[in-house]
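ok so heres the complex, two chains, lmk if somethin looks off
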Amino acid sequence: DTEVTQTPKHLVMGMTNKKSLKCEQHMGHRAMYWYKQKAKKPPELMFVYSYEKLSINESVPSRFSPECPNSSLLNLHLHALQPEDSALYLCASSQERTDEKLFFGSGTQLSVL
Amino acid sequence: GENVEQHPSTLSVQEGDSAVIKCTYSDSASNYFPWYKQELGKRPQLIIDIRSNVGEKKDQRIAVTLNKTAKHFSLHITETQPEDSAVYFCAAGNSGGGADGLTFGKGTHLIIQP
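and the predicted structre for the whole thing:
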């Protein structure tokens, strides 16, 4: 299995909602990442987990809360988002925390109303 | 931190011709330079990468060159085909897992004209 699976594929939420994005990989990778991508822009790093420990928090607002329950799963909990948070949220994984050979999931297209 | 500049932002070439996309980086500590291809509505996919101890790498129709002294690297696609149409992102990082992760260029929209 050489895939990173993300659910849901699409999500519409109001500014008062709480929702979670999920990511799963079974490649035995020990680093997992959350990226945010706006239309026609490059991916922007939000969080990195290495061996299930958070190693980077790129000054992301606290309304985004990551969680890594085990080495195969990564969640992103969303609360009180703003319309400007609407974007494609991409999960990625790599063998180690070297940023090399990232495998990206297909992403969750998030719309905040 | 690292800054990656990518040019051109849009590139249109005739099918069968070659395409070249160029990137420059600012941090001399960067030692890993991947290229990702993202088709419309799809995930970014790694197509080729190079480390700083190598000047050139080739994989079939795709090649990447790196000039460490000038801090620039380029993607070369030969014999372009319609399926090469996509947005291409270059990136720079430190394969030791730098504090900032990969820094991406702004992307090049490659259009292959039939």
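quick notes: Chain A has a mean pLDDT of 93. thats all i got rn
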